[in-house]
Each structure stands twice: as C-alpha cells, then as structure tokens.
C-alpha cells in the first residue's frame, strides 16, 4: 500500500475510533426497550411460578379436605383408644376413647336450637361469609386494641373446625394462613349445613362427651334431636372452656355462660324475651343424672384430673383417639387407705365431707387423691376444684416470706387487738376465741396460730410478697395481695397446698414435670400404641427457697404438732411438721403436714356452699386440730407402713447469728426507723440482712386519706379526724360537673405531720348552676332555663299533665350557655 493510502487509512480510522468513544445518545431508547423486555419476561415467569405454586397449594389443600368428613370411613378407622394407668402399670383408670365413643348424627338428627346457639355464640355471620370473616377479624382486632390484650378471636366456625381437625393449635402465621386457605377451600366444596353438622359432631363438650350426640346423652339422657333451648344454650357455652364451664364441677360459671349464650340469641332476634327469661331460669342437670362415658376406675377423681391435664397440654383431638398409653403416679393401695381414714372419722352421709391429697416430696408424685364421697353422685373434685379458704394453714407462706427477707423467727411481736390502716378503712383481725398472749416470738406464734402476730408480720413483709412466695412454692390459684392473705382468706385447693408444703420438706425445691411444667406431677410418661415412650414427664427441680429457710420452716412447723394446735396429728416415733387451719365461721377446716417421706393435705367441710360446722365434732366446732388432724394421722400411720418408710429425722438448720433492728412498714415495703416513726416493730434479722432504706418519718406523722370523689362536707370531716387541715382551691367547672365534690387533692396519699394542710380542688361554675325545674309548669320551666341560656329538650311520659316530672342533668351541676337540659313532661296516661 502507498504511503498516501496508508495516510488516508490512518486518517479515516482516527475519527471512527473517536466516534465509538463519544456518548451514544441515539441508542438509549433501544437499551431501555431491552430492559423493559427483560423485566416483562421476569414478570411473566414470576406470574407463572406464582400460579404454579398457588395451583400446587390449592391441590395440596384440596387433598387434605377429604380427611375432614367425620362420616367418611377413614375418619373413624384412624382413631385409636388411649388408656390411663395407675402406678402399677396395668390397672386402667380411664379410657381416652376415640371416634368409637363419638356417636355421629346427621343434620336432621340435631336440634335446631343447638345449631342456632352455636352460630349465635361462635360465629354470628356464619351464613354470610365464605370461611373467612374479615369484618369479624377487624371487630376482634379493634376489641383487642381497645383492651390492650387478646380478648376476642376472629376465627369462624369453619376455621375452628379446620383447626380442630387438621392444623392444630400452634400459634404461628403459617398455621393461620393454612387454616384460612383450608377454610376458604372447604366453603367452596361443602354447604354451610355440612360444615356446621361436622363441627357439632367433632367438638369436645367436657366430661368425655365428644360430639353433640354424646353430649346430649351425657348431660341430659336423650339424643341431640330432643335438645331444648336451655339445654342447647348450656352446651353451646361449654366448648370455649370445657373445664371452666363444666355444669357438674362449676354450676355457677356454667349458668352464667348459658346466660351469655341466651343473651346473644336474644340480641340477634333468634328468641323472644319471654323465651329468654324461661330458659335462663331452667335448672342445670343434676350431677347424679349426668351419664358419664368411659371406664371409671378405682380413682375416678384422679382419672378425670389426668384427662384434664392431657387436654390442657395436647388438646382434646389428640387426647381422645390418639392412642396414648398414660402412666400415672397414683398408688391404689394408698388410695384405699385414704378412703378408710376418711370413713373412720366421717361415716355419716349427711355430715361433712373430706378431701385428701398425698404427695411424695422427693419426686412430686401425686400418690393419693380423694376428691369426694361418691364420684357418681358428684363429679366435683374437692381436691382440685374445691377452692376454699385455708385459714391458718396459709401462715407458713408468710413465715417463708419473712425468712427470705432475712427476718429471724426470734423476732418478737405483741399479741394484742390491733387495727391496720388500709388507706380509707381499718382492718381489725382477732385471735381465736379472743385470747391474746402479749409479747411472743414467731416460734410461739406459729405454734399457737396467733392471728394478731401474723397480721403484723404480713404487714412487715408485704402482702404482695406473700402471694409471690406462695405461687413460687406451688400454689397456682389466683392470689390477691391483700393484708388478710396471711390469715388464709384467699381460696386454694388441697392439691396445691400439699404440693407447696412438699417444697418445704424437699429442701426448698418445687417439683415440676419436664413435659407439663408448673403443675402437680400426676403423669410419669406417655407411650404410643407401640409402647414407645413419646413423652417422659421426669421430675424437674426448681429452687424457690434456700435449704436453710426450708429447714427452718420445718423446724417451726414441728412445734405446731409437738405443742401447738396440731397435737392430734402426732405420730408416735416419727417427726411430723404441719399446720392447722380453720376459717372464721368454721366453714372450712384443714390440716396439712408431712414426714420426711410423705406429704398430705386434708380439708373437711360441706361441699355445697359455706356451712358452719359448729357442733359436728362431738358437739363442738370442727377446727383444723379435730377431724382434719385425726384423718391425717390415721392415713399417715397406715400409708407410711404400706410404703415401708423408716422413721428418720428432718435435717436441722445451721446456727445463724442475728441482729435486732427497729423497722416500720411504709409504701409497700419495710424500712429502717429514723427515730421519728410511730408504727415501729423490733425485728431480729439474720446478720447481714435487713431493710436497705431508712424511712423518712415526720414528727407527729399521720396518713393522708384519699378523699377524691367525696362530698366536700364528708371530706372535711375525714381530714380533720386525722388531724389534717383542708385547704380549698377552685378551678372552672365543666358543664354538667358537680361543684360540691372533691376533684383532686394534693398530696393524694402519703404522710404529713399533724395539722398539715391538704389542698382540695373543687369546681367553680362560671355560668351558674342548672336550676331545679321538676314540679314546675312547662312554660315556667322553659323560661327559667332560657334565662340562663340553657336549651330545653322535651320528652313526654305518664305524669301530672303540663308539669315537669324529671330532668337531666340534675339540678345543682355546673351550667354552660347552650347546654341541653332534657326535661320530661307529664301527660295523660
């Protein structure tokens, strides 16, 4: 190539290279088109993938629907009966029946009343939604938000049916989504009547009644087609909580729940007011008329208790027909000995009854449970469901709280009549038969069960702390932290009392189960139909007291038996620790005690209502040291021999040095006296313990009562009685506000020196007060109201023609221009 050609070629190539490096403005739209095509392709693939996934999900869900029909042959074949065994491993206590015990009935064989009652109660829009009720969910969510807690559920009957049969009760978003999808699919393939019929055939109504037909036969002795309105309303209320609304065990709760169902039916126009009133007055089925299903073994109360534990843990669907082989702790030999001990001391069928529970303190096993005289006559389990006041048998929990706070049993209180100020009133506990012993230490006070001393000790340690200690020890019933808790005014049951005392004997360790948690250990293990262990409920030790404190409690409770109120429970040649308990009106009597090998709690009383036992013990009142202690002793003598327990001593607590301190109880806690406190106790503390804070007591200190909401004259009298000086200030009153009532006060509570000022805030009307126009003629009443720029609103009622017979708001409250005053004018009847 010539040099010129090369130059030409070189010259042409330069601008071409430069052109490639310049921004390609015209090519931008083409690149955007490519990106859009790529995005479109990805979108199409995403839609296809989502469609394929949704189709697969729908197919999978549809495949699960075939197992929902309770009338399908495979639905009954998959159910296997389970069994509850005694501790011997072969004696059957109860049968956990599967679908064989469920009598299936078609829609035409079910009373319309139960269908209407269930729908009105559980899903009022059942016939309007398609499986998922968005409106109901929103209503439930709004109710929960207003109450700041989960009070209402938004599940439909269809969703509940799906949950019971397929998805289970596990709380997760995945389960809820699956449940909703299944419910929607089910509504596409089943009619509403099919869904409702299947639901009624599968839900649990308590007492072994699985399905509406079995429930009707169990509670009323006839089939589901014959259910009346009150019967249907009773059954419709049970599934929400079969234990709580059991008409046999909890008749009052069941009656109240039935009233709720009937009220819903009335509000929704299903029944008229007259029918509502008749149904609400209908009696519940008598306990002896309830036809219980399943085998009732040698410990029927215990068998039912175990069933309820299983249901609470796994749900009724898995318990009944799941094939569980449940091994329990009950000792049938000790069960017979408990029955014999009760019959020895309470032979009369018309006299008081007893409940008895025995526990092995080392492993928490419930060995004996006597819940009543006859399970056939009454299925109410006095050992578990019979929550009654424990009286002084609760005092060891006050002692335990004091020991935890470092208070020594050598602390001295004065046994005397006392009054404890509770804010706006005084509490005046008294001793049994009005006997007071003067200055005594806690060792003596627990032995003689001195109410005055333990009321003072409860104040020192704090009632809320006593409730907390009792719960930690094993009490599961609700306890309110009131001052009287130390004297046993909060209801508990014998089972939890025995369990809590077992914690004392076990060195401060409460025994739970690894599977069932913080409940009495009644189940040891659960096997499947092949005999393989699927749940091992081994003992789990939870430390709630130091061993020193537990041994000190035991030492103190030994004094109750050797020289106090529980001497009737003494066992020759064996150490015994325990405590008596008697309620103020002699309606309940207790003895709870233990040896190193066995703990037992005995309650004596009348099961139906609180009935004083004034002459039942050989013409004298029944107290904890009479029938309960005698029954306890008779049982323990034979039971300890039966289990081969050798006599041995309780562990002795170590020696601990102590230091006296002057303290006072203020603002819910114990504080050291600063030298000016009035209500002072001299307590003995273990060295290194004591209140960390010193009280800020004033000279001549008095409590400030809360008088907000009181009338002015009453508030003045109350403050001057302390004595304190009321000082009044005013703020503009709102329309309709009373002007003679204390709106606020400063300080609201606390303490001041005598005659200090307490500021009371009252409302001051800026536009006068509403006049009294009742009795005036209409024209005069209107004129009086309009003169004050008030706006009368009229309504008419029977009364003296032309006269005002009522007004709202009432006369004397603050007025405001334009305020509406509703006046009722009389007219001809």
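-> sequence recovered:
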């Amino acid at each position: 190539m010539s040099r010129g050609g090369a130059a030409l070629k070189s010259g042409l190539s330069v601008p071409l290279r430069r052109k490639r490096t310049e921004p390609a403005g015209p090519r931008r739209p083409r690149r955007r088109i490519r990106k859009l095509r790529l995005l479109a392709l990805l979108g199409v693939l995403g839609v296809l993938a989502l469609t394929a996934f949704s189709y697969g999900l729908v197919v999978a869900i549809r495949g699960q629907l075939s197992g929902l029909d309770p009338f399908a042959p495979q639905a009954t074949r998959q159910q296997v009966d389970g069994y509850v065994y005694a501790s011997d491993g072969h004696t059957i206590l109860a049968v956990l029946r599967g679908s064989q015990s469920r009598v299936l009935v078609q829609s035409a064989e079910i009373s319309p009343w139960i269908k209407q009652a269930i729908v009105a109660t559980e899903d009022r829009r059942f016939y309007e939604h398609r499986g998922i009720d968005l409106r109901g969910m929103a209503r439930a969510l709004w109710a929960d938000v207003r109450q700041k807690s989960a009070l209402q559920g938004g599940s439909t009957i269809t969703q509940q049916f799906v949950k019971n049969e397929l998805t289970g009760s596990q709380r997760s978003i995945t389960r809820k989504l699956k449940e909703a999808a299944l419910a929607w699919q089910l509504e596409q393939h089943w009619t509403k009547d099919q869904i409702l019929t299947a639901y009624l055939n599968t839900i649990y109504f308590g007492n072994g009644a699985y399905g509406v037909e079995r429930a009707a036969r169990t509670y009323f002795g006839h089939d589901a087609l014959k259910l009346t309105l009150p019967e249907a309303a009773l059954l419709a209320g049970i599934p929400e909580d079969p234990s709580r609304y059991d008409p046999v065990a909890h008749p009052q709760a069941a009656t109240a729940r039935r009233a709720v169902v009937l009220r819903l039916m009335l509000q929704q126009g299903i029944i008229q007011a007259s029918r509502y009133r008749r149904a609400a007055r209908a009696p519940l089925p008598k306990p002896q008329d309830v036809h219980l299903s399943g085998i009732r073994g040698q410990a029927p109360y215990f068998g039912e208790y175990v069933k309820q534990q299983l249901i609470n843990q796994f749900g009724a669907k898995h318990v009944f027909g799941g094939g569980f082989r449940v091994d329990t702790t009950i000792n049938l030999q000790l069960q017979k000995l408990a029955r014999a001990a009760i019959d020895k001391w309470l032979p009369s069928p018309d006299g008081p009854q007893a409940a008895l529970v025995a526990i092995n303190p080392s492993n928490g096993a419930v060995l004996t449970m006597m819940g009543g005289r006859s399970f056939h006559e009454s299925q109410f389990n006095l050992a578990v469901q019979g929550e009654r006041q424990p009286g002084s048998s609760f005092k060891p929990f006050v002692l335990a709280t004091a020991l935890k706070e470092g208070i020594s049993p050598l602390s001295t209180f004065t046994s005397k009549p006392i009054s404890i100020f509770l804010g706006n009133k005084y509490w005046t506990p008294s001793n049994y038969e009005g006997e007071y012993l003067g200055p005594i230490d806690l060792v003596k006070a627990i032995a003689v069960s001195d109410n005055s001393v333990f009321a003072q000790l409860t104040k020192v340690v704090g009632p809320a702390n006593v409730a907390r200690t009792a719960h930690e020890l094993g009490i599961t019933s609700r306890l309110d932290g009131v001052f009287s808790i130390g004297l046993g005014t909060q209801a508990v049951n014998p089972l939890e009392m025995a369990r809590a005392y077992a914690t004392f004997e076990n060195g401060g360790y409460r025994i739970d189960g690894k599977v069932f948690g913080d409940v009495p250990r009644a189940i040891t293990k659960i096997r499947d139909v092949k005999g393989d262990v699927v749940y091992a409920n081994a003992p789990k030790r939870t430390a709630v007291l130091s061993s020193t404190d537990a041994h000190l409690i035991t030492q103190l409770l030994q004094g109750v038996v050797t020289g106090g109120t529980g001497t009737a429970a003494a066992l020759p040649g064996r150490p015994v620790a325990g405590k008596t308990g008697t309620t103020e009106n002699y309606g309940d009597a207790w003895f709870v005690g233990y040896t190193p090998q066995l703990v037992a709690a005995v309650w004596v009383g009348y099961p139906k209502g609180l009935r004083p036992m004034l002459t039942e013990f050989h013409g004298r009142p029944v107290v904890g040291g009479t029938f309960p202690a005698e029954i306890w002793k008779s049982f323990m003598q034979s039971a300890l021999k039966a289990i081969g327990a050798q006599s041995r001593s309780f562990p002795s607590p170590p020696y601990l040095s102590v230091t006296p301190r002057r303290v006072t109880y203020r603002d819910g806690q114990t504080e050291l006296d600063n030298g000016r406190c009035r209500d002072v106790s001299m307590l003995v503390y273990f060295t290194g313990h004591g209140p960390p804070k010193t009280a800020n007591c004033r000279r001549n200190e008095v409590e400030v009562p809360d008088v907000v909401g009181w009338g002015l004259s009453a508030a003045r009298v109350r403050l001057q009685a302390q004595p304190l000086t009321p000082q009044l200030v005013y703020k503009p009153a709102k329309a309709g506000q009373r002007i003679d009532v204390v709106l606020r006060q400063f300080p609201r509570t606390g303490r001041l020196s005598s005659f200090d000022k307490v500021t009371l805030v009252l409302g001051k009307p800026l536009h006068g007060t509403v006049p009294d126009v009742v009795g005036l003629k209409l024209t005069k009443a209107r004129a009086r109201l309009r003169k004050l720029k008030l706006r009368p609103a009229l309504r008419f009622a029977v009364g003296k023609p032309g006269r005002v017979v009522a007004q709202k708001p009432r006369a004397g409250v603050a007025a405001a221009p334009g305020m509406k005053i509703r006046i009722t004018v009389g007219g001809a009847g």
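DSSP finds 24 helices and 27 strands in the chain.
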